[in-house]
Amino acid sequence: MADLRTSGKKNIATRRNVAVVFDWLGGAQALEAWARENPGEFYTKIWAKLITQKISGKVSHTIKRDVKQFTDAELQAIVAGECERIATETRGEEIAL
Fold it and tell me: What is the DSSP letter of 54?
C-alpha cells in the first residue's frame, strides 16, 4: 500500500507541473481558443469534470443521462441557465449531471 504522505506530495508536484505546462502552452487564452474550436470536447472532457450539480424540475420519473449524451446545444443551454427549456425539450425528464 502506498504511503499517503508520499502520494500526497506526488499529487501536489504533479498538479504544479501540469500548471506550469498549461502556462507554457498559452494558459487561459490558449484554452479559450481551443474550447471555441471544440466546444463539445471542452464541455464533456473538462467542464463536466469540474461541476457537480443536479438540475431537476417537476417530473413523474427520473432518467439520468451521462453528460456525454448531451448535444453541444444542450450543454451550452445548461451552462447559460436555460435548464427549463432543456427540461421541456426532453419531455420533462430530469437531467442529472
Answer: E
